[in-house]
Amino acid sequence: MVTIYTDGSALGNPGPGGYGVVLLAPPNHRKELSGGFSLTTNNRMELLAVCVGLEALKVIPCDVTVYSDSKYVVDAVEKGWLFSWEAKRFKGKKNADLWMRFLEVYRRHRVRFVWVKGHSDIPENERCDRLAVAAANSPGLQPDPGYSPDREEGMF
Fold first, then answer.
1. Fewer CB within 10 Å, N side or C side of the chain?
2. Catalytic residue among 8, 18, 20, 35
3. Confidence at residue 16, expressed as pLDDT on a 0 to 100 scale
4. Would residue 7 show up in a list of annotated catalytic residues for this protein?
5. For 87-126, how does the pLDDT look when each residue is reduced to its tens digit (9 = 90+)?
6. Quick one: 140 exposed, middle or buried, by C-beta within 10 A (0-12, 13-18, 19+)?
């Protein structure tokens, strides 16, 4: 059983952004991952954090619980919206590139999502936030290749 905490950040939306991931597995395995872009959005970084976390798993399949403070990500999966978006080939949906990437890795594992309130003193969620913000503030970031300012950001 693996536990993954994720968070994304954008300083301005769009603006510089980053993601943070903390992976935990028994008995005492821990891995932290982060990265950022000079121009991206918060929703993209929230979703990318989950993708990166799941992609880091070496055992396939794996039982995974993902903790995220992103209603955008958690609700899209848990409420089934994502699967209807997929059936319609993501027509008119934002972040299709990342949703397709997510689905590819999601289907390799048994994944359960838990929404947590951001900035509510959950240590690993707070750590992910610090990783994401630090990544967004890193020098020399490149633009997010999947972000297009021509497409309006939003859930629907």
1. C
2. 8
3. 97
4. yes
5. 999 998 999 999 999 999 999 999 999 999 988 889 999 9
6. exposed
Kindly state the tokens that stand for 54. Answer: 């799941």
pLDDT tens-digit series, residues 79-98: 999 999 999 999 989 999 99
Active site (annotated) includes residue 129: yes
Question: Residue 140 — left, alpha, or beta (φ > 0 → left; ψ -120 to 50 → alpha)?
Answer: left
Measured distance CA(9)–CA(16) in Å, rounded: 8
Annotated catalytic residue within 35, 69, 124, 144 = 69
Question: Does the pTM exceed 0.90?
Answer: yes
Please say if 126 is a catalytic residue: no
Peptide bond into 27 cis (omega under 30): yes
Task: Output phi, psi for 87, to 5 deg.
Answer: -60, -30
Examine the residue annotation and report whether 119 is marked as an active-site residue of this protein: yes
Mean pLDDT in the chain?
Answer: 93
> How much is the pLDDT for 51?
98
Would you call 140 a catalytic residue per the annotation? no
Strand duo 2-10 + 110-115: pairing: unpaired
